[in-house]
Design goal:
Elements (H helix, E strand, L loop, with lengths): L25 H9 L7 H28 L11 H17 L5 H5 L2 H24 L8 H31 L5 E6 L3 H11 L6 E7 L16 E3 L4 H7 L4 E4 L6 H11 L5 E5 L12 E4 L2 E7 L6 H35 L5 E7 L5 E7 L24 H8 L7 H7 L3 E3 L9 E2 L2 E2 H4 L12 E3 L1 H4 L9 H16 L3 H15 L7
Parallel strand pairs: 1-2, 1-4, 2-3, 4-5, 10-13
Antiparallel strand pairs: 5-7, 6-7, 8-9, 11-12
Helix pairs in contact: 2-3, 2-6, 2-10, 3-5, 5-6, 10-11, 10-12
Length: about 500
């Protein structure tokens, strides 16, 4: 479901997302505290499963090579290293593309073994055509290729069966559960609970119910699940607890109520599903996701989740490390210039809103006089701002003041690319950001970044009008919905050209 489908007003005088304004009751706060951490994440499992396939295929090929191609300690041929790495890597990549590392593939492995083996055959076939057309057949042992293909074919199936057993064991022990919250506690919720209980492969753990009805008026509470509060309190609960899914148990006929809920709930970084097991209305199969045979309509998906989050983290750590090594002389020079220009520390720490609206501490080079520093950004910097030092004016103009945030990237509370983290009291048109733009906190569904799509398109610097903030948020939402590694790389390449000596920065 696109964000554009939520027909919300552009601005309002209140925070329609319920962004932290509704306090949790004691019982809900305790449940949220118990759900702050999880033993095994889906992202970890996705990485583990990919590594298992890659290492297995590589090890089989290397073992056959060592036993047959170079027996007796003969010299190794480096050109064999190319297929040993590339063929398993391509196979793993294709399996991931066809959702072969998603949990359903391991809960019911027999249906995916054939697909996986077929992808290995396709990759091997392409390699065979490559060596044929480039007349490289004499460089490789035919027996090595044949035995590697057959053993790799068998190993992919064996690994899947072994991993399926491990996944089932972890699911039974609660290590791989998907934590869900029911939105609505009426008859639809009761029917959903019974349907999920009847599924042998159900990995959903219902942590509680949020419903505006009190006590016995919410029938689902009688099924043994706690009522954690009203729907207005759910956003705050979702920020404190690590939950995976919101299941809306409302009839499709309650269109107006459903739309009002979505305006408040889509700011959370979770999957939002509409229970569709009781409705007679039927959509195309692709519109549904299933838990066993129980259908759900996918309203929103958590952005940059699972394996994507691992890829983005590897991208961040790699490029941030390289950038720190390359830019350390410049950062040292900036720090010395700041110390010589005015008294006080070279670094400045500022609390800002991070992923899922959590408070993080961001590093910057100090650009203001110590006695005039504004840690909460109650007053944003303006042109010819007297609080800014001479060196500060230069480093803000060139964005050099942001370089220490590479440390934040390595710490894990910032990404290289993402929506910029805003200070606690930042304002536009004399109002807090969340009061100006409807659904503002939806930009916190992903980790904030040092640079972003809004920044390279000119929407940075002072937000003295509502229109400037709206354009910035629109660009942030576009980035979240269209993220890819190539998009991140494109933004990084544009950043030095777009931000250096930017007229909007002062």
């Amino acid at each position: 479901m696109s964000l554009a489908n939520v027909d919300a007003p552009k601005a309002s005088g209140k925070d329609p997302s319920g962004a932290g304004h509704s306090a949790l009751n004691l019982a809900a706060a305790r449940v949220a505290a118990n759900l702050r951490h999880r033993p095994v994440s889906v992202a970890f499992l996705a990485t583990f499963l990919r590594l298992a396939d890659f290492v297995t295929l590589f090890a089989i090929g290397a073992a056959i090579y060592a036993l047959y191609v170079v027996p007796g300690g003969e010299a190794y041929s480096l050109h064999y290293l190319f297929p040993l790495i590339i063929l398993p890597a391509l196979t793993v990549s294709l399996i991931g593309t066809f959702k072969g590392y998603a949990l359903p593939a391991y809960r019911r492995p027999l249906g995916y073994i054939g697909k996986t083996a077929g992808l290995w055959a396709a990759v091997f076939g392409c390699f065979s055509l490559f060596i044929f057309f480039f007349r490289a057949g004499e460089d490789f042992s035919r027996l090595w290729l044949a035995v590697w293909f057959v053993c790799g074919f068998a190993s992919l199936g064996i690994v899947r069966l072994m991993m399926a057993r491990l996944v089932r064991e972890w699911t039974r022990n609660g290590l791989l559960e998907r934590r869900a919250v029911l939105v609505g506690g009426g008859p639809e919720a009761v029917a959903l609970i019974h349907a999920l209980d009847a599924e042998p492969d159900n990995d959903i753990r219902i942590c509680g119910i949020f419903d505006d009805r009190e006590g016995d008026r919410a029938p689902a509470v009688q099924e043994g699940f706690p009522r954690l509060g009203r729907i207005d309190e759910l956003v705050e609960f979702g920020r404190r607890a690590q939950i995976d899914m919101l299941i809306v148990a409302l009839p499709l006929t309650a269109e107006r109520r459903l739309l009002e809920m979505m305006k408040r709930l889509w700011v959370l970084p979770v999957d939002i599903r509409l229970a569709a097991h009781t409705t007679r209305l039927r959509f195309r199969p692709r519109a549904y996701s299933f838990i066993g045979s129980v259908p759900f309509l996918d309203l929103f998906d958590k952005p940059i989740a699972g394996w994507d989050s691992v890829v983005k983290r590897v991208f961040d750590v790699t490029f941030a490390s390289l950038a720190l090594a390359a830019l350390s002389p410049i950062m040292l020079a900036v720090a010395v210039a700041i110390k010589l220009d005015s008294r006080g520390p070279a670094l400045f720490r500022q609390r800002r809103y991070g992923f899922n609206n959590e408070l993080i501490e961001v590093f910057k080079f100090r650009s203001m006089y110590v006695e005039m520093a504004d840690a909460n950004a109650a007053k944003l910097a303006t042109r010819d701002d007297p609080r800014i030092t001479r060196v500060g004016r230069f480093i803000r103009k060139t964005s050099l003041d942001e370089l220490p945030q590479l440390i934040n990237v390595l710490k894990g509370n910032l990404s290289l690319v993402g929506p910029r983290p805003h200070a606690l009291l930042a304002k536009a048109a004399d109002q807090l950001y969340e009061q100006v733009v409807d659904g503002y906190f939806a930009r916190h569904r992903v980790k904030p970044g040092i640079t972003g799509w809004a920044q390279v398109n000119g929407w940075r610097g002072e937000t003295d009008t509502q229109e400037k903030l709206e354009r910035r948020v629109e660009h942030d939402q576009f980035y979240i919905e269209n993220w890819s590694v190539l998009f991140d790389l494109y933004i990084l390449l544009l950043t030095p050209f777009r931000l250096f000596n930017d007229e909007a920065a002062y």
